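Hey,

Quick one before I head out. I ran the complex with fe (ii) ion overnight. Inputs first:
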Amino acid sequence: MKYLLLNIFLSMHLFGQAKSTIAIGPYIQNVTNHSAVVCWATLKSNSFMIQKSGKNQIIPQYENHEMILSSLKPDTEYSYDIGGKGIPEQMGTFTTFPKEIKPFQFAVLGDTRSRHDVHSKHVGRILKNKPLFVLNTGDMVGNGLDIHHWETFFDVTKNLMQSIPYFPALGNHEKDSPYYYDFFNLPNNERYYSFSVGDALFISLDLEGIQYQTPKYLKKQNRRYFWGNHEIAYFKKQKEWLERTLNLHDDAGFIFVYFHKPLISVKKSRVEGTKMRRKFWGDIFERHGVQVVFSGHDHHYHHALSGGTHYITTAGGGASLYDIDAIQPETVKAIKTEHYILTDVNMNTAILNVIDIKGDQIDTITIDKRK
Ligand SMILES: [Fe+2]
């Protein structure tokens, strides 16, 4: 493996101002076997002030920067230095994905939106393993429209994201926020996208939909119609894209899909909602031989098996845990615990290792390569 140094020089104009010091990041996005994006954000010199009931509230404004690096070598570690001055906070490393089929490891966690001490513990452990990348099944933050929540998220994940690419799915708590699209650089339309590593395919879906504001003047029945039309058109388009993507990658050795709200729930109050989602997506995952579907939203660990597809709810990233009160016929294991998952993708199998908050392995799932 080669080790190459990249200097990303910012203009003197940018760094000539004290306010332009990096405030968020740097962090790695959108890595492929030939490209990567280094992102960071600087604070604008003027904060925005809003007043409510005589009280002032300052809203910091960030300027997002990204350096798109192309024509890189596969499976190669690069180091970068924003500014080229050797300042440790502005430096990092990343590794491009391999072009060939070879073993690699990735981590998955979800619902990191609260109890930041739990999230921090997971981040520390994941960092020690140095996986090739990290997936988040959504609800990264408590309120996607509040910049302070993103500041906390990037603070907790700073050391991890400085060197390991992060691929999230949109959760309901992201609220379809512009901040999500400003901070992340993801493939396709950033709402739903795919990427490959060797012969493994990863697909992120958006089960939340575009967040329109329902006009107040609409009557109740029209309000339902308004939502229905917009939502159905969006999800139908996404489903067609998913079908095309799965057809195109029919030879993939492994297929992992991830999105926020699960298709199978062991939380009683949410079982009804899963039926609707399952009806819409139908047998698409099982028909295409998707081996693993990761979801979040229900704050515990749940492993279900249906038609050869493993449905894993991994939502133990920090948000307060939920009781398990509706075991389903497809349930294999359900544990109310904080956790994350480390997956080893080998030549013929993929092994999912579920790690709890104490660092103990609480479940192991072995997946065979697709025929
Ligand atoms: Fe959620």
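The pocket of fe (ii) ion is lined by residues 139, 171-173, 260, 297 (CB under 6 Å).

Talk tomorrow,
K.
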